[in-house]
Amino acid sequence: MTSPHDRLPIGELAGRSGLAASALRYYEELGLIHSERTSGGQRRFTRATLRRVAFIRAAQVVGLSLEETSAALAKLPQDRAPNAAQWNSVARTWTRRIDQQIAELEELRRKLTGCIGCGCLSLRKCGLYNPGDAAAGSGAGARYLLGERPDTVGVDAPGVTPGRA
Amino acid sequence: MTSPHDRLPIGELAGRSGLAASALRYYEELGLIHSERTSGGQRRFTRATLRRVAFIRAAQVVGLSLEETSAALAKLPQDRAPNAAQWNSVARTWTRRIDQQIAELEELRRKLTGCIGCGCLSLRKCGLYNPGDAAAGSGAGARYLLGERPDTVGVDAPGVTPGRA
DNA sequence: GCTTGACTTCAAGTGCGCTTGAAGTTGCAA
DNA sequence: TTGCAACTTCAAGCGCACTTGAAGTCAAGC
After folding, report:
1. A72: Cβ–Cβ under 8 A, 6 or more apart, which residues?
2. What's the CATH code, domain A1-82?
3. Residue A51 has pLDDT above 80, yes or no
């Protein structure tokens, strides 16, 4: 577990994770991953970093920003596999998020299908209208649907990066 | 249908659509929407533009870029409601895309749940690994999952903007 | 020891989808 | 007629997640 083979240079980590070295450096700069250095100043990552990187990739799919991912990663141990409780805590947040996204997509599909049925898209009737003010378009991709979250309409969705009018 | 009230100034369209005027100007610049001008050079949009704008919003939720949205919009009439056939053709593409996204999210959830069960995330065993090379991270948000689309692995996903190593 | 490829830092650039600001013009209501 | 909000264009800026390039250093195999 602490053999010399556990100390991956960045190219190795890049190769194994499928990410560019530049991206990994960037992640390290942001504090998402960590490395030790050789006497010459080159990075050496532990194998556990592979886990963190996989986590980051998955987080991006769920729609987390690197900042949010960073917060999530902070709950996991840096150099060993998380235990069940730790993992549970994170994964539960995720599955909730995933469920929410799925629900939103299904809602949109429902609206679209409704449109097919009614031949509408002629204002008003159609579920695609009523954008609900400043809801959607939170930058980092498919986040909130237009017209969704009627309970938080008129307010920036909670927990989402503020910016962007 | 062609009353003077059908000619919306940009602020009106912005208010009704929930988008910023600047965004609408940007869309017009890209050719997604169109306007006529008053003698003084101010934009006047038809009500039908509301439909196009709603369409654009929905398209963003599905993860389409404005360029892709533009292509989709080209299939719909500019100043009237689409007929069933036109709408069908577009909506079908969308529902397929939505279904695909849902499937991907469910797959990720499955993997996460598996992780909870097995207490893993300890390399190898876990479905979260094997990133499948250059798959995910196509820029505009939750597009393709890591490890997904095993049939197109190693190739840029078809129909998706090339860039980004 | 030397070569060569992998590494280092730092600054600047990229692409998307806008927003912001400056400086000027229009249109409508009083 | 005037006043003022709403509009106009154009250029530049922003935030995210990186990538690219320049210029230099390290490490490992021959």
Report:
1. A55, A59, A64, A90, A93
2. 1.10.1660.10
3. yes
